[in-house]
Amino acid sequence: MNHQSPKLTGLIAAPFTPMMENGDVNLAMIDRLAKRLIEDGVAGAFVCGTTGESLSLTLEERKAVAKEWRERAGDRLKVIVHVGHTSQRDAARLAAHAAEIGADAVGAMPPSFFRPAGVRELVDWCAGVAEAAPDVPFYYYHIPSMTGVTLSMIEFLAVAGERIPNLAGIKFTSEDLMEYAACLRFDGGRYNILFGRDEILLAALALGSPGAVGSTYNYAAPIYHDVIRAYKAGDMAAAQAAQDKSIRLVQAFAQYGGLAAQKAIMKWTGIDCGGVRLPLRNLSEDALHELRGKIEALGFIPLAASAVG
Questions:
Q1: What's 84's domain CATH number?
Q2: What is residue 1's predicted lDDT score, i.e. its pLDDT?
């Protein structure tokens, strides 16, 4: 059914969940985030995912964040709500809520404490979530580096295609480009397979990627628009040069804890999303100064002139 819905394409940001100083969710900042994405030509927002610290939020917080995004995005951004949870029943509740607020799609990573032993167990788990929002396209969120679930995605598509009527595709966050290509071609290209590794987007484009979901699209979307434009124009040297900017950006912040560092960069571009929740750690003042120096040295992320902090 819903796999026949229009496929998601282009850049889809995975937004940060804004936090206040006391650690509460800062819903008021979502409007500014949505406006930034629209200004930067981003096509959608994959909310409450890994970058959104979903599994560190309460169910009520996740619902509130999803609702705010749906309201603020209007008709300018597609809103995909991540509903994955260790509890299938809570994931189903989140999926039902996403349908109620008018989400364009839902996505779910698998449970990562008690993990599915095989593809059929994974499909059974996903089916129970997807059927809670039967009229909303469902995306499986494949991120084995975080979940430890390393099952075959080709087998998943084969089995889930028979079990989940609203299966739309996969958010594929893995470096396994052979499997990614196979998923793109599966059943005549039936499914929408979105790529999830910003730093190798060009490789995915060469394989036929229709769209991508990523954290750096929050503040560096123009770099990736350059990658896509150059690739489509057949200018591989320009595409590689733009992709190299992404690689240098990721290298600059990866050593500082990834998510905490990216929230700092987002703040320096003018949108303060606060810090991260435990067990993640915010950066020390020294680390912030070092990171800012590296980002400034790169020269292609416009930063506000305000002090670090």
A1: 3.20.20.70
A2: 41
Tens digit of pLDDT for each residue in 143-164? 999 999 999 999 999 999 999 9
In a domain, 231, yes or no: yes
**Low-confidence residues of the chain, pLDDT below 50?**
1-3, 307-309
- 273 within domain boundaries: no
| Residue 297 domain flag | no
* pLDDT tens, position by position, 261-273: 999 999 999 999 9
Q: Write out pLDDT tens, residues 274-297.
A: 999 999 999 999 999 999 999 999
Check if the beta carbon of residue 167 is closer than 8 Å to that of residue 3: yes
Report the domain count for the chain: 1
Taking the CB of residue 125, how many other CB atoms lie within 10 A of it? 20
78: β partners = 44
Could you report how far apart the first and last alpha carbons of the chain are, in Å? 49
Residues 142, 147: Cα–Cα separation, whole Å: 8
pLDDT for 4: 55
Domain that holds residue 59: 2-236
Q: Which residues are catalytic?
A: 141, 171
pLDDT of residue 304: 83
> Could you tell me which residues come within 8 angstroms of residue 31 by beta carbon, excluding any fewer than 6 positions away?
68, 72
Residue 268 covered by a domain: no
What is the distance, to the nearest Å, from the Cα of residue 78 to the centroid of all Cα atoms in its chain? 13
C-alpha 182, offset from chain centre: 21
Tokens of residue 127, six digits: 């089916």
